[in-house]
Amino acid sequence: MARFFGFENHGVLDDPRVQVVYDDARHFVLTTREKFDIITSDPIHPWIKGSAALYSSEYFRMCRDRLNPGGLITQWVPLYESTPETVKSELATFFSVFPNGSIWATTSTAWAMTSSCWGRTGRFSSTWTSSKRGLARPDHQAAAQSLTDVGFTSSFGLFSTYAGRGPDFRDWLKDAAINRDRNMRLQYLAGLGLNTAQSVRIYDEILRRRTYPEGTITGREDKLALLRQMIGLKAK
Known about the structure:
This protein has one domain (2-128, 164-219): Vaccinia Virus protein VP39 (Rossmann fold). 36% of the residues lie in helices and 16% in strands. The chain contains ten helices and seven strands. The strands form two sheets. A five-stranded mixed β-sheet has the order 1-2-4-3-6. A two-stranded parallel ribbon has the order 5-7. Strand 1 (36-41), helix 2 and strand 2 (67-78) form a beta-alpha-beta unit. Helix 2 packs parallel to helix 3 (84-97). The termini are far apart.
């Protein structure tokens, strides 16, 4: 399938650094001896049979154990065709393993609004300078172009999608159902959200609890002030 989208994926299969492994995601993560700097988990909606197993606390712990020191995991969380209870379960389960993780918007289209959770094995922090350098690296140009293709033309644009950190949501998530291998309750919660249109409401609930990540996103004060203004937040 990737070859039919060679223009969009910049010929990823022809990159000598790429190794394609055909395997069940959990089986691979559980049995590999490799460690990774980044693990991206982008499963389909959890109401699809079997997919909820890629949203469980056990799976997130497997991924955490396969990360290098300072490694990053990103987890896709759909807000469309979902309910507040479903999203809260997904977030609470992720933050139970990565308590200082964060939420970032990935699309702003109301009918297909999605987000992603980021978690690290260490403390997350980023600066304007390091982000700009990363986007400018010659070996990162395909990734930078992919971001440009979907509207992210600068590190500032990326930072503006910030939607909060785990500690911001403790009260909101305190009664959320943790999705575990022995119950897979998320699969049934998610099924109740099929064909619903509550993504804007859910995202508003998230943003209401967001606080500015002091010490996490750092850089020149004028840039930080502009970011605070852009996302409607003040420093604590």
